[in-house]
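I wish you would study the pair of lines that follows with an eye to the fold:

===
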Amino acid sequence: MKLYHSPTSPFARKVRILIREKGAANRVSEELISTMEDPAALHAANPLGKIPALVMNDGTSYFDSPLICEYLDVALEGPTFIPASNIERWRVQRLHALADGIMDASVSLTFERMRPEAQRSEMWMGRWRRAIERGIAVLEAEVTDLDGALDLGGIATGAALGYLDFRHAGLDWQSKAPELAGWWKDFAKRPSLVETAPPA
């Protein structure tokens, strides 16, 4: 299997963390790719031209990080990160969706800031910042859900918080969510997080 990714993408990082937590880094090759260059190899793997994209040995591909994570959780040996039972499954997937939403808003904010200043939309930037703040507030209120055995909700939360620190340190989320910040401080030390950290 081959995973197309960027070292700065939080969605790709989520997948890469899961692979390492599965103990399967030697089963999935990781290939750096730039979506800004619009490469043909990525289009063949994902017609939407987005990362991450996972390509099987027979050429079959999976795209969209939740789908890739679910596939790998079943296909790879090792611990399971998406529970089978409905109650626990929906709890984990709800947390996963919240973390992905924070990533969506954060990445949108990043791209908007890359535009020339005269073309930036303060209205959209404000909406994305507020979405991030509300998401962080929910994570802070429900931080105990991150305790216990690691699951995909925790993996996604770590990828989201890592991206905020990487691209949006000025939002100062840690001072507004001290319990979550304490969880993140410990979680970020896991080898899977250290190995997938974006470039300094």
